[in-house]
Automatic annotation (TrEMBL):
The lineage of its organism: Bacteria, Candidatus Doudnaibacteriota. This is Uncharacterized protein. It comes from the Bacteria. Keywords: Membrane, Transmembrane, Transmembrane helix. The chain crosses the membrane at residues 12-32, 38-58, 65-84, 96-113.
Amino acid sequence: MKKLNWKKAIGYALLLWVIMFVVVSILIAFKWYDGSGLMAWVVAAVGGVVSLILAGYLRPATAGAAFGYGAAFVVIGVVLDAIITTRFNAEIFRSVPLWVSYALVLLAPLLRIRKSTPPVL
């Protein structure tokens, strides 16, 4: 059984957070995002999709590994949001779409579990 690769988990979690921070920053710069309304839900869905794509590179072998990658993504995201994002938006953790995006990010790697091929007879 292949174990979770913590270096990759942390690296991809950091990459996910940076991608989402840049995406939201661009949307804010163009005044398309204010943290509420439909765009907040679109950003939540984008976070789930980006997590799904990154989890494809990790190729978790088991549900446990997939859940571990998702948990790493969420923990690192929450910590970085607490340290960095709260400087720009002190009320970020009151956002329901943010918590939905964390749930999507947690579960997305479960859709990327490597399928075992049956033995050829």
